[in-house]
Write a structure and sequence with these properties.
The complex is a heterodimer of chains A (429) and B (158).
Chain A lengths: L1 H6 L6 H12 L7 H8 L2 H10 L6 E6 L27 E3 L2 E5 L2 E10 L3 E10 L5 E4 L1 E2 L2 E2 L8 H8 L2 E4 L3 E5 L2 E2 L4 E7 L2 E9 L9 E7 L12 E8 L2 E5 L2 E2 L7 E10 L2 E9 L1 H11 L6 E3 L5 E2 L12 E3 L1 H6 L3 E2 L9 H6 L1 H4 L3 E4 L26 E7 L6 E8 L8 E6 L9 E3 L1
Parallel strand pairs in A: 1-24, 6-9, 21-23
Antiparallel strand pairs in A: 1-27, 2-4, 2-15, 3-4, 4-5, 5-13, 7-8, 10-11, 10-14, 12-13, 14-15, 16-18, 17-28, 18-19, 19-26, 20-22, 25-26, 27-28
Chain B lengths: L2 H10 L1 H12 L2 H17 L10 H20 L9 H6 L4 H9 L2 H11 L5 H8 L3 H23 L4
Helix pairs in contact in B: 2-3, 2-4, 2-7, 3-4, 4-8, 6-9, 7-9, 8-9
The chains are: A alpha+beta (429), B mainly alpha (158).
Chain lengths: 429, 158
């Protein structure tokens, strides 16, 4: 895999190499005027200036005062495609359960059921791990061990025999469910299975018993089946609302912020508006002496009066554009849409958590030197995030953490542009 | 870091600059722009580099940010097809390059950083502003997606 990917694009083309050489030859001895100007500008102006370079994205950075390490084997959250499942806030959590049979040991690591969908993670180990290694076929193929080695190669190298675990079919109190094994992974010699099963909706008030029964891969064998059963129970939910302290000129307007802890995970939910950020940026982009063009109902202001959708366009100055909330046209004023950048979930996915205990202050962020300090590293494992309602004025952002990972205490939220310029933070207590 | 040392370190990073910018952008002219812009930014911000041992990772981070900016500029336009430069200049692995570029960028980039640049999960996570768990997941997903695309492309099996 490594060799192939490394060679995928071939060697460095001569023209690419020449371009870098040319850049290196032209390196200015002093910092450029632009860089010097940027350094002299106050922070708010710096950020506004950056909008003139079409490089803008909004980032929210949560800054924490406490380091927490989250260890980890694969759990359900690792399989959720980087998105928190809002239903998971209503889940029923499982107690760990284990069973033996067919030569292997099967343990339920996590299982959640939201009334419709059962998700689970099982680990499977060979009972005699000195001589066997478990294997499971999924979608007609076998997973690789760590690195590029197939499990067959691994077994040959270590002299172990393969132990096919067959399928593990869950059953919720008489409801046989269709198999839905989604992913199979290895952690060393432990096989980790993740499945999602749609089952008939159940009332969640009473405990529900779940069985996992393995099929016997060898019908001539008299080995006993492995049966693992456990009870699902309703999760507890602890919700804490933050008090928001923000200055009148803060570019982030927090509508709501809360921390929800369930037995399954922690969720930080924040709803905010960045309208002032947009206005400030738009203000910096317009020149008071330039004539722009817009339409009565149009969202954008244009440099080019013949830009698309400009029927009925009229000339307008900076003050008018700002008063009417017109945003710079992404086509004729820089190839980027401020609104789309700000409210685009892809870019807002860049939320990160920071811990800066050695700095005495809570914030610490430079998009280019985050690796360099040796401090301020984020140790809280963000397991997923989701932006919703981003097309409206209020953005709802949910970040999911490992259960118990989100610390108590004060948080600071700051808006940053991609160059790390920070706006006035908002304090959550 | 003085200019001589900076030039030496950048020259040593040329293969990384090429591979990462190509995997981000899929077009040689854009890759040249991104790499060149990243080198200039790195030079401008060299004073912020407190530990020169991390120069390569630091430069990678700047390159990723620069490449993302270029992608944002493209965002309003239809998805750019794989540039013919790739197949013209990558020779026998062109099928792999084509397949790789069909893997979604959020998986493609960590895949490239891990396998081609030998970066650790943690370094990739820090470079991309993600958690290690998400990076691991994306690499796994990327591997599967790459395999699917290779099979579609030319029946390749690992």
């Amino acid at each position: 895999m490594k060799n192939s990917i490394e060679k995928a694009f071939g060697g460095v083309p001569q023209r690419f190499s020449d371009r870098i050489d040319d850049t290196l030859m032209r390196l200015p001895e002093k910092k450029t005027d632009a860089a010097e100007l940027t350094e002299r500008l106050p922070k708010a102006r710096q950020s506004a200036k950056m909008w003139k370079l079409p490089l803008i994205a909004a980032m929210l950075v949560l800054v924490l005062g406490t380091a927490l390490a989250v260890g980890g084997h694969y759990g359900i959250l690792d399989f959720l495609n980087g998105k928190p499942d809002e239903n998971a806030q209503k889940v029923i959590a499982a107690n760990p359960a284990s069973g033996r049979g067919n030569g292997f040991v099967c343990t339920v690591r996590e299982a959640v059921y939201d009334g419709t969908l059962l998700r689970y993670v099982l680990e499977v180990e060979a009972e005699d791990s000195e001589h066997f290694v478990p294997i499971c076929e999924h979608n007609g193929e076998f997973e690789l061990m760590n690195g590029d080695e197939t499990v067959g190669q691994y077994a040959a190298r270590t002299g172990k025999k393969l132990l096919n675990v067959g399928f593990l079919n869950p059953d919720i109190e008489g409801y046989g469910v269709e198999t839905g094994l989604e992913e199979v992974k290895y952690e060393e010699e432990t096989l980790v299975l993740y499945g999602e099963y749609t089952v008939p909706p159940r009332i969640l008030d009473d405990p529900i018993r779940v069985f996992f029964t393995s099929t016997n891969p060898n019908p001539e064998s008299s080995a006993e089946e492995a049966i693992v059963s456990f009870f699902l129970r309703k999760t507890s939910e602890d919700k804490r609302k933050y008090t928001v302290r923000q200055s009148a000129d803060s570019v982030i307007q927090i509508a709501k912020a809360e921390l929800i802890r369930t037995d399954f995970s922690d969720y930080f939910v924040v709803e905010y508006s960045l309208d002032r950020f947009v206005t400030a940026a738009a203000s910096a982009l317009y020149d008071a002496e330039t004539t722009y063009y817009t339409t009565r109902k149009g969202r954008y202001a244009h440099m080019d009066e013949f830009c698309s959708g400009m029927q009925g366009a009229y000339a307008a100055g900076k003050a008018e554009l700002l008063s009417k909330g017109k945003l710079p046209c992404p086509v004729c004023m820089g190839n980027i849409s401020i609104a789309e950048s700000l409210y685009n979930p892809y870019w807002l996915m860049d939320i990160v958590l920071w811990d800066a205990p050695d700095y005495g202050i809570f914030y610490h962020r430079d998009s280019d030197d985050m690796l360099l300090t040796g401090k301020g590293n984020f140790d809280i494992d963000v397991r997923g995030s989701r932006v919703s309602e981003y097309e409206s004025e209020i953005v709802r952002y949910i970040i999911m953490f490992e259960r118990g990972a989100m610390p108590e205490g004060q948080l600071l939220l700051s808006a940053f542009d991609p160059d790390g310029n920070r706006y006035e933070p908002v304090v959550l207590e | 870091m003085d200019k001589t040392e900076f030039v030496r370190r950048v020259n040593a990073c040329k293969p990384m600059l090429y591979r990462v910018s190509m995997s981000l952008l899929g077009s040689l002219p854009d890759a040249e722009d991104a790499a060149s812009e990243a080198v200039l930014k790195a030079w401008e911000k060299r004073d912020s580099l407190k530990d020169e041992r991390y120069f390569e990772t630091w430069l990678t981070r700047i390159l990723i940010n620069t490449g993302r900016s270029i992608l944002r500029r493209r965002a309003r336009h239809p998805e750019t097809e794989l540039h013919e430069d790739i197949t013209a200049e990558t020779g026998e692995e062109s099928g792999l390059a084509t397949a790789l570029m069909r893997v979604e960028i959020e998986c493609r980039l960590p895949l490239m950083l891990h396998y081609a640049e030998d970066m650790t999960m943690r370094a990739i996570a820090e470079s991309m502003g993600l958690s290690e768990g998400v990076v691991k997941w994306r690499i796994e997903k990327g591997r599967k997606r790459l395999k699917e695309e290779l099979i579609k492309e030319n029946g390749y099996e690992e």
